[in-house]
Amino acid sequence: MTDIHLSDDDRTFTEEQLQMGAYRTADDVIRAGLQVLREEDEELRRLIKVGEDDIEAGRYVTFEKAGDLKKHILALARERQNARSAPEHEPSRAQGPSGHL
């Protein structure tokens, strides 16, 4: 196996993790870091696949100008904000006190 050379910052971080008792050995620290890297890589690959599937299915939007993209992003943000601030269930005015029409 290839020798691993750590920067001073990485060496210090590893030592801190060992001193705090978070890990038993430096190998455990490296193994944990590699596990996080693996998980992030898998998530990135999953998201790329979702994007490719969306493009293949025609689920995408094109923009003529960067300003149009900005407007679209702001509209999406407003929609999400409105969805979060709306009560989960609010009877309509047409409904009676019991919530039924």
UniProtKB/TrEMBL annotation:
Residues 78-101 are annotated as: Disordered. It comes from the Bacteria. Pfam families: ParD_antitoxin (PF03693). Residues 78-92 have a biased composition (Basic and acidic residues). This is Type II toxin-antitoxin system ParD family antitoxin. It comes from Rhizobium quercicola. The lineage of its organism: Bacteria, Pseudomonadati, Pseudomonadota, Alphaproteobacteria, Hyphomicrobiales.
